[in-house]
Amino acid sequence: MTKTLPAATFNVGNNVLLSREEYIRKLRSRYEKFLKDICYVNTRESCTSDATDEIYAALSSILPATNRLPENLILGCTVFGGLVSKTDTLQNRIKVAHFSALVATFDSLMQASSLLSMPDGGARVKEDCGLFILKLISPATIQQLIDWLQTDQNPFLPLHPRLHMTCVTVVVRFVEVCLLEHELTESGFQIEPEMQGFPQHVREKSGIAEAYTLMVLVAPHLVPQNYSSEDGKADHSFFYNKIYPLIPEINAAVDKINDILSYYKEFEDEDECMAYISSTAKLKQITTYEVLDDLMDEMVETRKNCMAIAERSGSREVVATVAAFFQGYISFHFTWNSRYKLRELFGDDWFAGDCV
């Protein structure tokens, strides 16, 4: 995004204008309420991973030495894998971190500034994306993502083909929406008041949240001893009646909690037509702060719903997995400070975990 000069005042709704300093204080107060309401625990034990070194070493050995990912990205995704799935096996946490690194790299590659910096203006990358979507070929641009899909680097091969197919579908849609967002921006697209379904349309097309949900929530409970019974039929029933209903709720949380915790680093940037909070604010003709406020309330209710569904499963493992996801996902955003910049908002000493 293009950085603009800080506004002299910020509208928080009902034409209430605040100075930047006042706005920052109001933001912090609202974030603190959100964290309290969503049951976030800011302690050293709750905010750190017990496997950071092991995941980092594994990720470094998996990723190719040539065209190595940026160090900061590897560290951030190491933390992601370690925190959001703390109840899972080390092997699956490494797979989550690996997938996260590949997705984040591709997302960065498709940013306008990255494409424009290429000698051909990104023409080859865009062509590779189009060919991948149409024919599922293996262009070099996304070869590592394809390798992840086609091997046991992902947690669903070879025993769970339907869930593996969901991951394939998710990645294809993600590549397509990255290309779509770039082309819309290139075309000068502007969102209009009548386009009420547009923000959610773009969000749902990306679909990447579902892959994370499957890996973080479902993969730990594919292990037979985590089911309610050792009987195969009962296990199948338990999965679809007790685990699967969580997926839409967790999908929403993956997307919208990220919107909430990304807001601070973006609130002074020029609006992008694809940004969910800014586009929703334009459509509803309210301020971005009001959209943020509504999202926070919505996600507090989403967590309550998720915990209620998990508790009805009768499985302590399911309850622990869901609670650990919300705690870990929020901690991840605080930990990756170089990306989300939440230390600037909360102060250097507020967060009990480590920062990268």
Automatic annotation (TrEMBL):
Superkingdom of this protein's organism: Eukaryota
GO MF terms held by the record: carbon-oxygen lyase activity, acting on phosphates
InterPro entries found in the cross-reference section: Isoprenoid_synthase_dom_sf, Trichodiene_synth
Keyword NAD tagged: no
Keywords per UniProt: Lyase
Keyword rRNA-binding annotated: no
Entries under Pfam families matching the protein: TRI5
Family: Belongs to the trichodiene synthase family.
Name of protein: Terpene synthase-like protein
